[in-house]
Design brief:
The chain is α/β, with parallel strands linked by helices and about 270 residues long. The protein has 10 helices and 10 strands. The protein has a domain of about 70 residues.
Length: about 270
């Protein structure tokens, strides 16, 4: 289990994210059924559950890809239930995907730079001329991206084509692109899927480092319970679109409802 590092830095008494009685339906399929949860600033929260439990649907609702059939979503105390993905991202929410979604024909550096687009401001004319403030802005954005490249230890591949990289490195580049947006809340959909043991250890180290060094709040979907126990402050378990547990990792692991639905351990 992750050792507590003290209370997170809180700018108000309001949770960073509040999901209130959210339901999502696709025709006759109830993907989420009155799910409520809160995520505090500075937390690492793992979302677990069997396939089809509604985990990715939950991330899609939070990031604006889906809109709930019922319920409300608040970010920093403000209702953002109906915002589009671009507007949600502008508030400070970034995500990665279960299947890598890089621009395969672009370099690693250019992929990461696309994560800065929401941060770029300025006159089209100045940018076209690459003069004055536009040049300074470009240098500042590039410096931040270089910091992320150093942090994630991908300096050696910064000019490589993203599509030429092994799967584990592609996942790391996707994480870098999400971090380039300087998110307040980072959503990771199975960031370690398909990785070997060494790659998982590296990704765990980077996720903890992002939380500690950048102060980023993180919610991740993960199936590897050893990873969940090692890096999470809190675990939320879903089953058939409903929340069945929410608590410290050791509490959720011992919850009989979670054991029956997901962990597959017989009754004592």
């Amino acid at each position: 289990m992750r050792e507590p590092t003290g209370p997170p830095s809180v700018t108000s008494g309001v949770p960073l994210l509040e999901v209130d009685e959210v339901s999502v339906r696709f025709g006759a399929i109830q993907a989420l059924d009155r799910v409520s949860l809160e995520i505090e600033r500075g937390e690492i929260v793992a979302i677990i559950g069997p396939n089809g439990a509604g985990k990715t649907t939950l991330l899609n609702v939070v990031s604006g890809f889906y809109h709930p059939s019922e319920g409300r979503i608040r970010f920093e105390g403000r209702d953002r239930t109906r915002l589009r993905p671009y507007d949600v991202a502008a508030l400070g929410v970034a995500r990665t995907f279960q299947n890598v979604a890089l621009f395969k024909g672009m370099s690693v550096l250019d992929n990461i730079m696309t994560g800065r687009l929401l941060k770029m401001r300025g006159s089209f004319l100045l940018e076209a001329l690459y003069w004055g403030p536009a040049m300074q802005q470009e240098l500042l954005h590039r410096a931040f991206v270089e910091r992320i490249i150093d942090f994630l230890e991908i300096e050696a591949i910064r000019k490589a084509g993203a599509g030429t990289l092994p799967y584990g490195l592609q996942k790391r580049v996707e994480l870098a692109r999400a971090l380039a947006a300087e998110p307040k809340l980072l959503l990771l959909d199975e960031p370690m899927a398909g990785m070997n043991v060494e790659e998982k250890e590296d990704m765990c180290r980077f996720i903890l480092g992002v939380n500690d060094e950048f102060g980023t709040t993180i919610a991740l979907i993960e199936h590897d319970m050893s990873v969940v126990m090692d890096i999470s402050d809190r675990v939320i378990a879903l089953d058939y679109g409903r929340k069945i547990a929410d608590g410290r990792p050791e509490e959720v692991r011992a919850d009989q409802g979670v054991i029956d639905a997901y962990l597959g351990v017989s009754h004592a």
